[in-house]
Structures are given as C-alpha cells and as structure tokens.
Amino acid sequence: MVYRGCDIGSAKPSRSILKKFPHEMIDVVNPDEVFTVADFCNISLELITQTHLEKKLPLFVGGSMMYFKSLLNGMHELPERNSKYRDQLEKLKEGKEKHYLFSLLNDKDPEYAKCINKNDEIRIIRALEVIQKTGEPLSKTLKKNKNNPIFEKYHIEQFGLLDEREFIHKRIEERLESILSDGLENEAIEILKKYEIPDNHPIRKSINYKQIFEYIDGRYDIETFFQKALFATRQLAKRQITWMRSWDNYTEIRINEFKAVKDKLKNIISLL
Question: Given 1.10.3470, 2.60.40, 1.20.1080, 1.10.20, which CATH number is that of 83-141?
Fold first, then answer.
C-alpha cells in the first residue's frame, strides 16, 4: 500500500474509506523506488511518538509479519540495498542449476541458510548482499543487539486474525476475483508505462503484480494468471499463520469476531 498507483493489486482502501478513516503509510513512494523494512520502522517510530503526544492510540494493521516483527523486536544495523550487486547476482545465476544462489549462501553462511527456505530468493539475496558489504556472515550480525525494540518502551497488545482454512481460502478467491474485475490488468499496464521498474524490484515479486506482469508479458493466459495468483496468496496466508503461531503474547481472534479487540482497546484507552 506504500506504493503510489498500486491500488487494486494491493487491495488498498478506497478513497471514501481513507477519508472516513485516515490511514498512515499510504502512497509513500513511487513504484520505481524501494520501501524497505528500515523505512517502515523509522516512519512507524515517528508515528508512534506523534500519536502518543496527541493522546491517541496507534493501531497497526496488515499482513507483513516480517515488518511487524522488526518493529516489535528492533532491527540490526544493516547496510542499505546495493542494486549493482543485486544485478550481479541475477546475472550470476543465469544458466546455473536451480537454487544456485541458495547454494552460494550455504557456502558463505550455512547457519543462516538453515533458517530460510531455499526458494526464498528475497532473503537469500539480502543475506548475500549483507555478507558482501560487511565481510561477515549474516548469522553473526543477527546475534548482535538490536536497535529500538518498541516492546521495551510501550505496552503492546497483539491480535492474530485466524479462521478455518476453507473459509480463508474462500475469502482469498473472492478477493482475487474482485481485484481482477476492478481493473488489475489496466492498472498494471499503466504502472509499466509510467515507471521503469527493475526486474529485482520487490513489486515484481509481490503477489498479484508478479503474476499480472507475467501475464501482460505473454507468459501465460488469464486463467493461468488466476490460478498462480490464487496459489501464491494461499501460500502467503499459510506462512502468515505459521508466523503468528510462533509468537508469544498475542490474542487469537476469528474473522468478524472483534469483541476481544474492542474490550482490550477500551481498557488501554481508559489508561491514556
């Protein structure tokens, strides 16, 4: 939702909803720029401070578990993205066996490689990038103390929205049908016309946009697009559930059952 013009594919709230319920971190950067976890944490810390000064309660909602985890527990001092080195890695893997970059990471940092999926190219490339810049394994860097963990400063309530798998899958399929009928293809065409987006940009790897860009590129038909996007979203939902169930101190709630949230928020607000 942080990328301007990426409205339909990210299921961004409508203008009427945003007018009625103002959101932060909407339309922050253009699609040819990169919004990082560090950007998210820095902006979030500023918003939390400002919201408390206004005697209000900051409420974070969304599905990016890695971003929330970084905000909650703090981040390590890591080097910025290096587009030139990332391009080198993309060229390096051309013509090589599958999972070549994972094998490269396993040689350089076997301890970190054990913690990630060999198909998770985003984390693999980031790890290789950090190793190249710092000269030490990422696993070693991650053992150092983190900066600005908010759980040390604030009282935090966490809620995990979960439900039966069949119900979640049904919701995912209905949402994808809506996104497609709302004009995802036209939106994607306009994005590609307006911006020069590198092949290794996060948008090209994000669900819905990755599949619609490949469809526009003629790699498969619209039905295949739908099935690929549907499968990718279901896999993401599965990973999100795994993330949530590995966390401590969160309240599990079901879709459309928000009484537990309301009760806890009322108690917190009464203390402000």
Answer: 1.10.20
Distance of CA 95 to the CA centre of its chain: 29
Q: Phi and psi dihedrals of 260, rounded to 5?
A: -60, -40
- Residue 245 dihedral angles phi and psi, to the nearest 5°: -75, -10
State pTM to two decimals.
0.79
- Residue 29's contacts (CB-CB under 8 Å, 6 or more residues apart) are 2, 3, 4, 35
Residues in the chain: 272
Contacts of 184 (CB under 8 A, 6+ apart): 8, 9, 208, 212
**Whole-angstrom Cα distance, residue 223 to residue 268?**
47
pLDDT of residue 118: 87
User: pLDDT tens-digit profile of 195-215?
Assistant: 999 888 889 989 999 999 999
* Alpha carbons 105 and 130: distance in angstroms, whole number: 11
Of 206 and 119, the one with more pLDDT: 206
- Residues 115-153 as b/e (b if ≥16 CB within 10 A, e otherwise) read ebeeeebebbbbbbbbbeeeeebbbebeeeeeeeebeee
